[in-house]
Amino acid sequence: MIRRIVLLPVLISLAVLLPGCWDRTELNDLAFGISSAVDLNPDGSYRVSYMFPLPGQMGGASGGGGGTSGGANSYYIDSESGPTIRDASGKLQKRMSRRLFLSHRRTMLIGEELAKQGIEPLFDSMPRLPESRLSTFVVVTKGPAYKLLNAKPKFERFPVEAIREIAKSKQSMKINAKEMALALSLGSDPIALYMGEKSSEKADNASREITILGYAQFQEGRMVGVFSDDEARGLMWLRQSVQTHALTVTNPSDKQPVTAEIVNGTTHIHPKLNGDQVSFTVDIEASAKVRENFSKLDMNEAKDIQVVERLISDSIKKNVQLAIAKMQKNGTDSAQYGPIVWRTFPDAWQTKLEPKWRDVWSQAEFTVTADTSITEVGLINQNVIRRSY
Amino acid sequence: MSRTSRTEGLLHRMLQGRKPVSSEAGEPLPPDYRFLDSLKEVPLYESLELNHQALCEWFEECSDIVVREIAIEQGIPAVIAFVDGLVNTDSLNDALEALMVLEKGVESVEDIMKTTLPVSQLTPADNFGDLLLGILGGDTALFVGDESKAILMGIRGPEKRSVAEPETESVVRGPREGFVENLRTNTSMIRRKLKTPRLKMRSMTLGAETNTSIVIGYMEDLADPAMVEEVVNRLKKIKVDSILESGYIEEFIQDSAFSPFPQVQYTERPDVVVAALLQGRVAIITDGTPFVLLVPFVFSQIMQASEDYYERFQIATLVRWLRYLFLILSLTTPAFYVAILTFHQDLLPTTLLLSVAAARESIPFPAVVEALILEVTFEALREAGIRLPKAVGSAVSILGALVIGQSAVQAGIVSAPMVIVVSITGIASFTIPKFNGAIAVRMLRFVFLFAGALFGVYGILIVALIMLGHLAGLRSFGVPYLSPLGPLSSADLRDTLVRAPWWAMTKRPEFLPLQDAERMDPELTREIARHGGQKGKTVRHERNTVEEEEGSS
């Protein structure tokens, strides 16, 4: 008994001391970098900017008034340059009284200049740091990244919160660091969210809002273009991750528009091997809701609904063709079809396709079919003030 | 060896009676004794005078004890002795009246017992041990003539508290009677619920000076005889001057004296005792306290309340899950809060973290100090509230809520999230039905808090593992403390994490030592399982269109 009483504290202290988990840090000794922005300086060095929330000005427990009153921001932004990203961060740390803590970095902004030169450096610096999260959204910004960091969207307390909410919203494909790293490590071509600043329109005091502009098109680590609007919509279909988006089609008989919302859809991709060439059959099934109908088409009539369905299918096919054209023009496999071919024809991929995949891809032929079904026409079948014929 | 003899000497001095006075015959008068028990060896004198003298010597300067010489009919001298206040005066007067108008003379003490005294409880005493225990227990002793035998008349009329609702274990549904301080009232309450001769109540006396009566209750043919023997043996080993509460006994008989976890259950409720007896457990009823001890006691029983068995089984099950959840919360919430805030800031969602950081921005203390301040204050508030009269008690809680909850946060001494954490913890600890189990959790919370503050979640895990190991090694009267979960006895799970409906609990708990596991005739159980209840097939109502089910399998 006595031996056990003596032994127990020894064992306990060994168990808790040996793993070396002795790094207590109080919450108010940490600076939470909730977003970082990396840009390329003209001299080739990197400019790293961080956004830190200021807990002291967020209206804490002492109650004294809402934190963001009087125009004072509850965050601040600081930036530093250096030959590497961590070097710049180190310089920044010198003037910070709290330790830079990156576990809560939820968006990472990349300046367009840097993206065009290549983002490989980022994918060394970020995963090397254990604090980093691969679920961070990666956003390429139109213009310098630090400028977007300084936008002042009205809805959210922090601008990066707006970026994050837009990035994970229903309307956009969710591209995070993990997905990009995966594509890059396969030697494939990633895409990234492409966002920019936009002033709110027609307001007395215009605010600097953030908007999604499309998806940055990368060739390996270098950005070569942007999928915007219809190309972006087509890309969603090709990547098998269609998001909610509105399509406006024109009724050919009376030249009036009909707007439908794509709510759901699946894409089936069937690669076919013809010698050294590959062709793809892309079968798209979409379900849509009619949201507005200015045309004379009667939503009571099955044949009229079929007309709308056909129009939407054509529109989808057109978008997909646009996206394919964009990819083949720049020779990027942004839709990640390389891995699909790899899985379908592993031998052919390894022996002959992989070495010249970019050429094969650029010459690949696509057969696109789209089948739309309208699941809902809304609360009314036709305009409430329109008389029946 | 030397230590033992020294203790004995000390005990001897402590327990020794007054210096004996020599009688004419040279014998010490009254007889010397160390424990009252030892006087059971000493027979009464065959002389009324000597007996009277002995009593007078013993009870010298005892103003509450009446030793009175009387002469019953025909001038036969007699002596009565009783404790004033423990005796029902009316009954005593009746008895004396019957004695004093004795008509046919006295043949012997036996005669008086058989024919004269209008008292239902009469016991003869032929030794000083029984005599003194009887008198001090409230009986009236009667000596008649020069006989070495006295009559103990059980005409007790002590002041006692009336049976009231137990305050520590109140229920919404269930009997509202609780034990009182009087042993016989308590045993009668058990007997009234358990009308079978198989309920045995062995009696013994503990405490050299207090001579507290103890009753060991068990069901014959149901409780394991070895278990009963073990209880009796452990009780017999207790040599102490006083037993003022069953808590004294508990600390003497438990398996692991240093464990924070209770290995003996106590209860104020007769229905709980009866339920335990019917599981083959043993009850220890102590005179002078309403708290009856029940052994063995395992961890899962900490989380059971008597009302679980009176309310519908669904809610009883859900409430049990709630209790287990809050048990864990009560143990670890402050620890996890501190650990996450000081070690694992990456574990919280960003917005929550920023809110907490904003609240903590102006707090001058590290998180662990803050937690300690609040936890200790909370414990102090609780302690203060328990002792105070009810009227003042509410004032304390108002002060506590205002001062701690409001002012301390506003003054920036503690943060609001920490107040929330401590409040959750406090509420959680009150959901544990057995108070002695809640005490263990209350103490261990601080261990977890320190572990979390020093080593983060890793430390919490280490402490949790040590605690689990300790629990797994613990025994209560030989029954593993974590049973029926470890070792697993799957049949008992229906009354552990869930509470099965009564008709499904056909067997008594198997993890307890039992002689007879059958609790009910399984016929009705089968019927209910088949039809989903008793369908009242014999009840005919003109609107009752339900056809009699036939040939259902």
Enumerate the spans of chain B where pLDDT stays under 50 for 5 or more consecutive residues: 1-7, 9-26, 549-553
Question: Approximately how much beta-strand content do the residues of chain A carry?
Answer: 25-35%
Mean of residue pLDDT values of chain A: 87
Q: So how many helices of chain B?
A: 17
| Inertia-based shape of chain A | globular
End-to-end Cα distance of chain A: 99 Å
User: What strand order characterises the main sheet of chain B?
Assistant: 3-4-6-7-5
Structural class category of chain A: alpha/beta
Straight-line N-to-C gap of chain B: 74 Å
- Mean pLDDT of chain B comes to 86
Number of strands of chain A: 14
In what order do the strands lie side by side in the largest sheet of chain A?
4-3-2-6-7-8-9-10
Shape type of chain B = globular
Features:
heterodimer, A: alpha/beta, 14 strands, 32% helix, B: 553 residues, alpha+beta, five-stranded antiparallel beta sheet, globular, disordered N terminus, disordered C terminus
Protein model, in words:
The complex is a heterodimer of chains A (389) and B (553). Chain A is an alpha/beta fold. Chain A has helices at residues 2-17, 85-94, 112-117, 122-128, 145-149, 159-167, 177-185, 229-238, 302-330, 337-344, 346-353, 357-363, and strands at residues 30-32, 35-40, 46-53, 75-82, 99-101, 107-111, 137-141, 191-199, 208-219, 222-227, 245-251, 256-274, 277-293, 365-376. In chain A, strand 2 (35-40) and strand 3 form a beta hairpin. The radius of gyration of chain A is 26 Å and the shape is globular. Chain B is α+β, with helices and mostly antiparallel strands and 553 residues long. Chain B contains 17 helices and 14 strands. Chain B has helices at residues 2-15, 48-58, 89-100, 109-116, 128-137, 183-193, 225-236, 246-253, 270-277, 299-302, 313-342, 350-360, 367-387, 390-410, 416-430, 435-473, 522-531; strands at 21-22, 28-29, 65-72, 76-83, 122-125, 140-144, 150-153, 199-206, 212-219, 265-267, 282-286, 292-295, 475-476, 479-480. In chain B, strands 3-4-6-7-5 form a 5-stranded antiparallel sheet, sandwiched between helices. The chains are: A alpha/beta (389), B alpha+beta (553). Chain A binds chain B through residues 12, 15-16, 19, 21-28, 30, 32, 34, 53, 55-56, 58-63, 67, 101, 103-104, 106, 131, and chain B through 341-343, 345-346, 350, 353-363, 366-367, 409-410, 412, 415-416, 451, 453-456, 458-459, 462, 466.
